[in-house]
Design goal:
Elements: E1 3-8, H1 13-23, E2 28-31, H2 41-50, E3 53-56, H3 60-68, E4 76-79, E5 91-92, H4 101-107, E6 110-112, H5 116-130, E7 141-147, H6 152-160, E8 172-174, H7 184-191, E9 198-204, E10 210-217, H8 227-237, E11 244-246, H9 249-254, E12 270-277, E13 282-289, H10 293-307
Parallel strand pairs: 1-2, 1-3, 3-4, 4-6, 5-6, 7-9, 11-12
Antiparallel strand pairs: 7-10, 8-9, 10-13, 12-13
Helix pairs in contact: 1-10, 4-10, 5-7
Length: about 325
């Protein structure tokens, strides 16, 4: 049976990516509104209530308004915005988060797609806190760099369009220096922390890709763990998962002088690395992903597949196969 899927906000960066992924599929019928209908609340409401599943690719307030339009109790939703990532009644849509989370997503009516930065940070913090290697009250610092596509159409134009009003010639810059980035609380809650992490994002002159880094002063942690303990906790947590993998320590040694932010471009996977200096009892864990793949549209399609009872890897990167 073909499932009817509606993307509310299809014209945005994430919406376009999801629509591209679904348009050629035969197991999904993509419901669409004309450009003149996209701001018509009654037409949107009809789609949101008539679809088997809707994916919201909207700003935060608009996503809340879209949910308010849903009257059909059977209607199911994936929200790609920040609006519901910590809201009661919504399932955090990271299938690899913990054992059974994929099954929970599969039966949920409301699923919140993680933020791209938050996904990388949570993928490292949650297993380490759960294993007791990092205490919940850890003073975490998270540094990250993303391709400019993560900022949507306006930032894409700023980097690519010579005539854009906000044109930038910068190759790299920090932002969010008021320390109120929208992903910070998401990282705290789903990372298992009691205090807000110090999160410093940045953007580089490349379209897609992302590195999220978690520095660890191993000597300052309660058990003074070694790098191999950090690595083992991550590897055990994600064992057998196709979408999240942990690079062997021997391979991270070979990367010690360079980690490419575009290494996961075009994929729907997230790779974790642990780099360390045993002599100084220091380590840094790094998450590498495509901000538009596992960090946005790929994650939404993975969640959609689970919710519709389809094979989890359907429509994702060609190399993605169940182990």
């Amino acid at each position: 049976m073909t499932a009817k899927v509606f993307i509310d906000g299809e014209a945005g960066t994430t919406g376009l990516q999801i629509a591209r992924r679904l348009s050629a599929r035969r197991d999904v019928e993509l419901l669409r509104l004309g450009s003149s209908e996209r701001k018509d609340a009654s037409r949107r409401a009809a789609m949101l209530n008539g679809a088997d599943l809707s994916i919201l690719c909207l700003p935060e307030d608009a996503a809340r308004q879209a949910v308010a339009l849903i009257e059909d109790t059977a209607a199911r939703v994936i929200d790609a915005s920040t609006a519901h990532r910590m809201a009661p009644g919504w399932t955090y849509g990271f299938p690899e988060f913990e054992a059974g989370r994929g099954a929970e997503i599969a039966v949920s009516k409301r699923v919140a797609n993680p933020g791209c930065y938050a996904l990388g940070a949570v993928a490292m913090l949650h297993p380490l806190v759960a294993a007791g290697l990092v205490p919940a009250d850890f003073a975490a610092t998270v540094n990250a760099v993303s391709g400019y596509s993560g900022g949507g159409k306006k930032l894409i134009a700023a980097f690519e369009d010579a005539g854009a009003p906000d044109r930038t010639d910068s190759n790299y810059y920090l932002y969010g220096l008021g320390l109120e980035h929208k992903h910070t609380e998401e990282i705290r809650v789903h990372g298992g922390l009691t205090h807000r992490p110090l999160f410093v994002p940045s953007v580089g002159r490349f379209a897609q890709g992302m590195i999220v880094s978690l520095p660890l002063q191993l000597w300052a942690l309660p058990e003074a763990p070694k790098a191999e303990h950090i690595h083992a906790a991550l590897a055990d947590h994600y064992a057998g998962r196709w979408a999240v993998s942990v690079s062997p320590l021997a391979e991270t040694d070979a990367l010690a002088d360079r980690l490419d932010a575009e290494a996961a471009r075009g994929t729907d996977r997230l790779t974790l690395h642990v780099f360390a200096n045993d002599a100084h009892s220091q380590a840094v864990a790094c998450a590498v992903l495509d901000n538009l793949g596992k960090g946005a549209s790929g994650q939404a399609v993975q969640n959609m597949n689970l919710m519709l009872g389809l094979p989890e890897t359907t429509g994702l990167e060609p190399e993605a196969r169940d182990p």
